[in-house]
Design a protein that fits this description.
This protein has 320 residues and is an all-alpha fold. It is built from 17 helices and two strands. The N terminus is likely disordered.
């Protein structure tokens, strides 16, 4: 009797109508699985392309780092499994810790500090500046971003070389400039990469600043907050997600910079600008040790994964 009453209900006129029994956990789980499968079907071609062109090369490189692959000799025809020997040799090499340190210096100086701060300053100038400020920024900043990397690299080399543009400008003020690429190689490539990549951060922050409600900043101004306080206490907290996203993107982009450094300094003088991508290239293609070079590339991949995980966790915390 109870089951019969549970299965029926009454409408506004008192007539009994059947009531659909509540679905159990298993039924809801199956329905959720069917919806997820239906949503995943259109993604199958994209997933296939990612597997072929991204996961495949990564796995192949990871496998190659455990072999003695080479461009010449018997190892070029049939590579042998050497286990962890490449990694043992890498961690015993005096060049490896130097390259890791220089990579971190380049990353923090160029991405975390350089592109991030310069991009924010340019976004603020674009927001509150006049038309000629926007034209100047578009010419020198956005123009550098859209240039092919090889062209930007040669332009940077011409600017920082001993008889280049920078020293010519200093000579106009009676100052004899040094050979920047030999005396300050890391500073030169950090400034060059900041110049080339700041436009991306500027565009991200320009879009984020447009989303800040003006009434909030106006209320802070009425409360007596000056421009600096409004920026640090109101604007920055409201665009923190954009800051975290931008930091993650420019960090991963900066980790993979090779052409700019190789054209400007070639990793030199000596190893004073030998970042991990340049070291991997030289070991793999200059000294023909492909297995050893792919081991360096694998370490670089792991460094990028660590930074990506940190930024993703930071973004997840903000969303929660």
């Amino acid at each position: 009797m109870t089951s019969t009453l549970d299965a029926v209900g009454s409408d506004a006129r008192g007539r009994t109508t059947p009531v659909r029994p509540p679905r159990g956990p298993k039924t809801r789980s199956r329905a959720h699985a069917r919806r997820s499968l239906a949503r995943a079907v259109p993604l199958i071609p994209a997933i296939g392309l990612l597997v072929v062109f991204l996961v495949g090369p990564i796995l192949s490189s990871f496998y190659g780092s455990f072999t003695n692959m080479s461009l010449t000799g018997s190892a070029a025809a049939s590579a042998e499994w050497v286990g962890l020997q490449n990694y043992i040799d890498l961690f015993n090499s005096p060049d490896f810790p130097v390259s890791v340190w220089l990579t971190l210096v380049f990353l923090i100086g160029s991405a975390v500090i350089g592109q991030n701060i310069v991009g924010m300053v340019l976004a603020l100038l674009m927001r509150g500046g006049s038309r000629w400020v926007g034209a100047l920024v578009s010419t020198f900043v956005v123009g550098a971003w859209v240039l092919p990397e090889i062209v930007a690299a040669f332009a940077s080399y011409a600017f920082f070389s001993q008889h280049g543009t920078l020293n010519a400008i200093l000579a106009g003020f009676g100052i004899t400039g040094p050979s920047w690429l030999f005396a300050f190689p890391m500073l030169s490539i950090i400034l060059a990469n900041t110049w080339r990549g700041a436009a991306f951060s500027m565009l991200v922050y320009s879009a984020a600043l447009q989303e800040v409600p003006p009434e909030i900043t106006e209320a802070a101004e009425v409360d007596g907050a000056n421009g600096a306080k409004r920026f640090f206490l109101v604007t920055l907290p409201m665009i923190r997600r954009s800051i975290s996203t931008n930091l993650m993107l420019i960090t991963l982009q900066t980790l993979s910079v090779f052409t700019l450094i190789y054209v400007m300094t070639g990793g030199g003088p000596g190893n004073k600008s030998m970042t991990l991508p340049v070291l991997a290239y030289q070991e793999a293609f200059k000294f023909s040790e492909l297995g050893y070079g792919t081991a360096i590339a694998t370490i670089l991949l792991l460094v990028g994964a660590v930074f990506a995980i940190v930024y993703v966790r930071a973004l997840k915390t903000e969303v929660d």
